[in-house]
Amino acid sequence: MTSPKESGAPGTITAGYWLVVTGAVLSVLAALYVLAIRQAVIDANVQVNKDPARTVEKIARDVDITWISALVGGLVLGGLAVWFAGKARAGAKRSRTSLMITVLIGLFFQLTVSPLGVFGALVAMVGLALFYLRQSTEYLTEPEQTS
Questions:
Q1: Residue-wise pLDDT tens digits, 83-117
Q2: Three-state secondary structure of the chain
Q3: Domain that holds residue 116
């Protein structure tokens, strides 16, 4: 007894899955990049700072909080997106909706935390769009038939 979904996902689903994975990885790499240039980010913020109450220590703390939250958020939301994309790739239609919600939350999160992370979120959005093409929808909505 085999399901038609065991024969393999269509190319749009597979490409969408890998784009979601790539987007998740890019979002995490964006947070790690900010860690790598941490001192340059702090220096740039100190130069444009016009508030005397905002000390270098406060600016450094804010930069640290931002990159840590970008890293943790990217890992959590990226992991969830990859997990839901994998379930949708296996044929679970409801996972596509969960993937959409997760990717949208990830996009809004990256918009508020990391300008570089937005690129990864947009790549994941393109992958999500592939899950909604006709070929993908037919794959996810076809009834499981027994042979």
A1: 999 999 998 888 999 999 999 999 999 999 888 88
A2: CCCHHHHCCCHHHHHHHHHHHHHHHHHHHHHHHHHHCHHHHHHHHHHHCCCCCCCHHHHHHHHHHHHHHHHHHHHHHHHHHHHHHHHHHCCCHHHHHHHHHHHHHHHHHHHHHCCCHHHHHHHHHHHHHHCCCHHHHHHHHCCCCCC
A3: 10-141
